[in-house]
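User: Predict DUF202 domain-containing protein's structure from this.
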Amino acid sequence: MNDAAGEGDTGLAIERTVLAWRRTAIGAAAVALLLANAALHRGWAPAAVVPCAAAIAMGVLAVAGFRRGRDLRRGRFGGAARSMVLATGVVAVVGCLAVLITLIAPAR
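Assistant:
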């Protein structure tokens, strides 16, 4: 809600944003572990390269999400556009890699 002066309380908005970046980091780390597990079960064949690349990309997203949340907690609000572009790019790359995994994986 807005106060009498017309300025909103940004404290809760920052906290929600920090929690959203934390959820992104945890989700990305979980997906990275699942993709690494898939690569290990396939052996180190050429088909395992795609899940490994996706796992690395999700690891990068996990680190970026953690760092962005930490920066927001410390009052550093710059770099939002860079963080969002990185997150969007990583998710797009992993989505494309997921399509490749589906196409490369043998039917069972």
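Residues 11-104 form one domain.
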